[in-house]
Queue: 2 jobs
Job 1
Amino acid sequence: MSLDPKVTIRPFAEADIPEVWELWTASEGVGFGPGDTPAGTAQFLRENPGLSLLATKEGGIVAAALCGHDGRRGFIYHLAVAVDHRRQGLGAEIVRRCLRGLGQQGIERCQVVVYASNAGARTFWETVGGNLRSDLVVFSLPT
């Protein structure tokens, strides 16, 4: 499947935060916790330059992913594709490019956290090569 030639994928810049947040908050299954703020997003982008990506079409943002690493493991957060651009390979292409960027920085594994009840997201991540880890559970600790 080839991408729409009018779609451009590029690094996610701090100036894009307001429009990306509109996409994320309008997308089902994207959850937010402490630290998930526009200011927190800006800090994350500064600490992981060039790894987070977005897609534009005709000047508007139609997909975005927050991607980075801690020096050991990569993470992709908040991948969202606008409803009218889904099932066209755009999300998979963004993931492919995020993984390539992590690999170029020596990161060999990437993790994604998805709500257990989000069947669409679970299917997507399996489709792009994700392996469900049934041997792990996630704990969240406040600081």
Job 2
Amino acid sequence: MEGIPSKRAHILLVDSEAPQAEHFRSLLSSTGHEVTVASSGSEAMEKISSRAFDILLLDLAMPRMPGLEVLRELAGRGTPVRTIVLTAVIDRREIVKALQLGAWGVVMKQSAADLLYKSVRSVMAGQCWVGRYSVSDLVQALRQSGPASPEDAGRGAFRLTPREREILSLVVIGYTNREIAEKFSLSGDTVKHHLSNIFDKVGASNRVELTLFAVHHGLLN
């Protein structure tokens, strides 16, 4: 995934609650980002059609055109914007669906300002941001949300070796590099080498992204 410039971002903030939208707009503008505000999903789609944005901060709970519908339409269009969903309520299935539809991150609306800044920086740098949720919770929800599609399933497609698949399985359940090394009697450098190969082969850039990819594509079956 290609990186986006790391300092100034063009952000589209979509929130039906005007006070909340103004709060987020003020926070992000104070750090030098250019922020455009939309109050509905349909307005957001109009703005996206007329100009390019780096980041879409998208409220999931909006009337008429909820955030998930916006994500579906963006996925259908192939719009190259990186979406961070905003939510006030923890709903793992909804969040997992947003990630499957292409969202890059999840931020609770009540999060401190520094977490909002960090989420934008991380997504701008090409990294997923799911700071509030554990990897194991996401794996469980992804597995419950339905099997991978037949064309995605199958380990051979990504050329993972048997050892790489073993290491991937441990990464998914939360093992550290040191714990993986101890389990397989490997050196730390060898584990790092295997992980580097795994990340390269599947195109993931961090452990959360790797976990989501592995479960979604049936690499752990």
